[in-house]
Amino acid sequence: MPIFLVFGLIAACLPIDWPEPPFEPAREVAVALSGGAVALVLLVAVGLRTWVVRAVRRDPGRRIEVGRAYARWRRALFFVNIGTAAGCVLALGWGWYAQRAFVMEWNGRPTLAPFAELGVPLPYFVVLFACWVIYYDAERALHEARGYDRRPFAPRLAYLLHNLRQFALMVMLPVALIVTQQTLTRFAPEATRSDVYRIASLAVVPLLLLFMPLLMKPLLGLRSMPAGETRDRLEALAKRLNFRCTDFLLWPTHGAAANALIAGLLPRVRYVVFTDRIIEDLPPDELDAVFGHEVGHAKHGHIWLYAGFLSLSLAVLAALLILLDQQMRATDTWLLLVPVVVTAGYLFVVFGALSRRCERQADVFGCRAVSCSDPACTGHGDATEYPRGGAGLCPTGIRTFVRALERVGDLHGLTPDGPERRSLGALVRGAWAWVRHWLHAPMPRRIAYLRAVIERPALERRFQRRLFAFKCVLMLGLLAALIALGRFVGWEKLYEQL
After folding, report:
1. Among 389, 363, 356, 318, which residue's Cα sits nearest to residue 471?
2. Cα(101)–Cα(122) distance, rounded to whole angstroms?
3. What is the pLDDT of residues 131-185, one digit of tens each?
4. Inter-helix orientation angle 443-455/395-411, to 10°
5. Given CB 3.0 to 4.6 Å as the disulfide criterion, which of 100, 123, 206, 408 pairs with 85?
6. Do the bridges between strand 109-112 and strand 247-251 make them parallel or antiparallel, or are there none, so unpaired?
7. Helix intervals (H) in 91-155
């Protein structure tokens, strides 16, 4: 859950007066208790790793059962790890200790060192990196127990680097921007009050969205897809769909992920990325459908929509915070957590609703990319003609994309075993599935909708109309809220807050 992790780390890095350790001597107690808590959760991780390795080596036939149990326990330990780090900061005195240990002399007085805020969530970083080292053996044992997969598992260093790159791009990038701003405020306060700095701060998010593909290549170790049948097929499909991009990139994950994504607002800095496993494990027609899904994001302007939504939302939230500050006039540093919690909740609910609808729209375009013009066709062959621009939508194209979703879900261990009885456990698992897939909706729901479209094509047209209305109401509502709040709190104050 990167969004919760991002906002949790941002909250930890805020200039809050964290509680002192429960006992004296304070510094020694903070280090000892926090170190003990970290060691305890790492012992649990070692126990899980040991059980997985021994179980699959003793009986490789239990690989699926053990793998599912391992996935459940690791998801649970993800929250245990976050809770342990939060406990270190809030109850065991680590946050208090970090704010006093990572200091330096500046202009004759003690000041937090540059980027010292990252010392507050240090227990989580230690747990995270250590767990990568520990879980490597478990995941290699599960991979080797498959038997039929001849792809060698990634070396330990490559596995660690793969995880580190994803963490740096998806989690640490926004956290680093916040910490950099706080560091500049401490060491160059005059510069941070200048118009140039404020304009640059406003431009950071749009520039990141524009040039994110250029950052992704070195951070994720992406490389251009080699010439061959797969690349030729994708280029031909892109031409038929009237889609332009800079390059097709291959993401070497050593078989750890089966995914594809599109990045970039403009064709000159736009890339379509495929992991090695999705290229190797999907047949050509299903890979075409997955590529069509990514093209659908560009064709429907989703990346531009997200950029506009995020920019307007952040401006509205900033105006609301100014209004709150004007009404409360409070000085308690704990109130700094309010905007973090509000922003996280807002993005989870509102942006999640928008993203899930856009993903469904992209799913439909993925079906169109491999559909012919006959709405009642029963199959495709070598002589099948596909309309340009993805103008068709046929049952065969929908079934092809559904097979691709099912295969990707199976590769990620997301395919359900079958219908479950109504129970509290089933409800909890269903709710957790929604939380995990807050941007895409659970895989069974996506598949069920597409299969329903085969029987009732009018569902797709009604969905497109409703989505258009939803986007218009959402964006116009945000714009109206910004104008009203800007007039109420003052445009100059809003500009200073941004």
Report:
1. 356
2. 12
3. 999 999 999 998 888 765 567 788 899 889 889 988 998 899 889 988 998 998 8
4. 170
5. 123
6. unpaired
7. 94-101, 122-144
What ranges do the domains of the chain cover? 2-202, 223-416+426-497
**DSSP 8-state secondary structure symbol assigned to residue 269:** G
Q: Is 333 left (phi over 0), alpha (psi -120 to 50) or beta?
A: alpha
89 residue type, one letter: V
Question: How many other C-beta atoms lie within 10 A of the C-beta of residue 410?
Answer: 13
What are φ and ψ of residue 111, in 5° steps?
A: -140, 145
CA atoms in the 13 A half-sphere facing the CB of 422 = 0
Q: What are phi and psi of 248, to 5 degrees?
A: -100, 125
What 3-state class would DSSP assign to 300?
Answer: coil
Q: Which of 101-105, 190-194, 298-302 has the lowest mean pLDDT?
A: 190-194
Q: What is the dihedral sign for C-alpha 348, 354, 355, 359?
A: positive
Q: Tell me how many degrees the CA angle 175-181-186 measures, rounded to the nearest 5.
A: 130
In a 3-state reduction of DSSP, which class is residue 25? coil
CB proximity list for 167: less than 8 A, separation 6 or greater? 128
Which stretches of 88-225 are assigned E, i.e. beta strand? 103-106, 109-112, 223-224
pTM here is 0.86
